[in-house]
Amino acid sequence: MVRADLEQVRAAAHRSAGTVNDALLTAVTGALRRLLERRGEHVTTLNVLLPTAVRATAATTESLGNELAAIVAPLPVTGAPRDRLARVADVMAARKRLPAGPLARDVVAPLFRLMAGLGLHNRYLRRQRRFHTLLSNVRGPATALSFAGARITGAVPVAVGESGNVTVSFGALSYAGVLTVACVADPARVPELDELAALVGDELARLTAG
């Protein structure tokens, strides 16, 4: 787990005309690049999948649930953190301006259910080449909540599902001014999970410094 002050991350993002998502993407891709360099591998871009809400209005009784699109973006991983943040913000803004395709609820989800029924879903995930990692960011309550009279002091994002050949992923959740990032990895492929989490924290600190 990595924790950061949400307002500091937002302020850093805004200085580069970006969003909290852009700052998170900059931090996790920068951390992955540094980890790969320590392994002797060198990359200039990483493809990241980012689930994005596309619902234009509040849910109604006729249309409940999430409406999501999956954005896959090739993100730059070289250069100073703040410079990369500005470039990541440009890439993500361009991706979001692309014409929206069919909603996942209407097309992708039924297709994946069919693939799962035929035993093909896991096969696809093990062989896909579209993205290297994924980041899911959820905006949580801005103020602390209570449960049965006890104050909830923190919240941790947890994602469960078939990962296929994606050996590391990230989940982020904001709660009461704290942004928590969960780093999840296949221990056989990414045994340096503690090191990766420390690098994510360092990247966020570099972005928010000053």
UniProtKB/TrEMBL annotation:
Pfam families: WS_DGAT_C. Transmembrane segments: none annotated. Residues 65-207 form the O-acyltransferase WSD1 C-terminal domain. This is WSD1 family O-acyltransferase. It comes from Actinomadura luzonensis. The lineage of its organism: Bacteria, Bacillati, Actinomycetota, Actinomycetes, Streptosporangiales.
